[in-house]
Amino acid sequence: MCVQIKIHRGINQIGGCVTEIKSKKARLLIDVGSNLPTCESEIKVNIHSISKKCDAVLITHYHCDHVGEYMQVYKGVPIYIGEQAKEIFMVFQKKMQDTGVTEITQDYIDRIETFKIFKQGVPFEIEDMKITPIRTDHSAFDSYMFLIEVNGKRILHTGDFRTHGPLGKSIPKMLKKVGIVDVLICEHTTLSRQDETFMTEFMLQNEAVDLIKNNKYVFIMCASTNIDRIASFYHANKKAGEKLFICDTYQKELLDYVSKSSTKYTDYYNFADVKSFDRNFYSSMLDKGFCMLVRSNYFSKRFVHNPKFKHSLFIYSQWLGYLLGQNADESIVKFVPKNYYYLHTSGHATAKGITDVCNIVKPKVIIPIHRRKLTRF
Ligand SMILES: [Zn+2]
Ligand SMILES: [Zn+2]
Questions:
Q1: What residues does the ion ligand 1 have nearby, CB within 5 Å?
Q2: Which of 138, 194, 254, 303 has the fewest C-beta atoms lying within 10 Å of its C-beta?
Q3: Measured between alpha carbons, how far is 305 from 167 in angstroms, rounded to an integer?
Q4: What percent of the chain has pLDDT over 70?
Q5: pLDDT single digits (tens) 124-134
Q6: CA distances, 120 to each of 86, 139, 185, 239 (Å)
């Protein structure tokens, strides 16, 4: 037997990703994702029974459409994830547990504690498979591609990625080191989502500088775990003249962890000047202005819906589908002011980004995943 690849889910849908790779001696799952709320797919995957026969589960990143079904993984089968991704996911799940609106219990947290970690560029072996994690650029921090080498075959699984964020430039360099592969399992999200925009993360940051300069009170709504987006606004604020940059205690905990764990590599993710809200800031906030990270919760509503800040700018910096259209989230629709300013760029590769990857690793076979079924007109 050579090597078998099975896409259990994710070939004709965005998210819900589960890929299996099987050799003579080993069996792996890459990602155990849940279906996104916007997904119309009815495909059911029994993660429990599939994982029972596996030697390991590799997680590309902490978005739920890649890790959401981790509790279904057979106990005793190791789950591998990046070190920072593990911690961020843990803090996020604890927050979900605290809000009490999801099913997250202590068991969920305890299971994350057992996740094993890998390091960028450091190969590890599962039986006859050699796995090399390659750090990539995505809207989840500490995301990875995996190079799997087994029985003389080389398989590259991209996970979700893009080439227009802060780490994007290093992807071609890293993939040149990877060299030619036999099979490329590659995300194709944007080829089926025509509403995505493609400014670079750096262009977004530049636009944010002017917005922050020209508006005294600035609210910013983006995913709490989209660290690169928060970094864009944080650095934009510094360039704009440095107002107070405020968030809630949960967001502060996440950013403190990222600062602490990243500064040995780069200063870019040092969020030392982010402040957790304190009542003593209030008069200074009114006088001098501020940037505040907000979400549709009680803490944020007190400010966003406060008449004292009615002349504020509200920047909406995440997927527009949560706010508009048939899949909109009711709590977000009620929270976001009607005159919001949309400033966002996709976490997924452009057509050019995908082509560039293909031209570098020159696969014999491409398996497109993470895309909606294409319809011919
Ligand atoms: Zn995804
Ligand atoms: Zn993702």
A1: 65, 160
A2: 194
A3: 36
A4: 96
A5: 999 999 999 99
A6: 14, 17, 19, 31
Which domains can be identified in the chain, with CATH numbers? 4-193+349-369 (3.60.15.10), 201-342 (3.40.50)
Burial group, residue 49, by CB count within 10 angstroms (0-12, 13-18, 19+) = exposed
Residue 244 alpha carbon to ligand 2 centre in Å: 30
pLDDT of residue 376: 46
The alpha carbon of 226 and the centre of ligand 2 are apart by a number of angstroms equal to 10
Verdict on whether the full-model pTM lies above 0.70: yes
Rounded Cα–Cα distance for residues 202 and 122 (Å): 29
Residues 6+ apart with CB under 8 A from 129: 21, 23, 25, 26, 28, 148, 149, 150
Cα 188 to ligand 2 centroid, rounded to whole Å:
12
Q: Closest Cα to residue 60, out of 347, 270, 374?
A: 347
- Answer whether 198's CB lies under 8 Å from 344's CB: no
> CA-CA distance, 353 to 370, in Å (whole number)?
15
Rounded distance from Cα 66 to ligand 1 centre (Å):
6
Residue whose token pair is 């927050």: 95
Q: How far apart are the first and last CA of the chain?
A: 41
Intervals of the chain under pLDDT 70? 1, 39-40, 192-197, 373-377
How far apart are alpha carbons 183 and 2 in whole angstroms?
13
> Which residues are CB-contacts of 222 (< 8 A; sequence separation ≥ 6)?
229, 230, 233, 293, 317, 318, 344
Burial class (CB in 10 A: 0-12, 13-18, 19+), 198: middle
The phi, psi pair for 123, rounded to 5°, reads -70, 150
CA angle 128, 354, 126 (to 5 degrees): 10
3-state secondary structure 106-157: HHHHHHHHCCEEECCCCCEEECCEEEEEEEECCCCCCEEEEEEEECCEEEEE
How many whole angstroms separate alpha carbon 323 and alpha carbon 313?
17
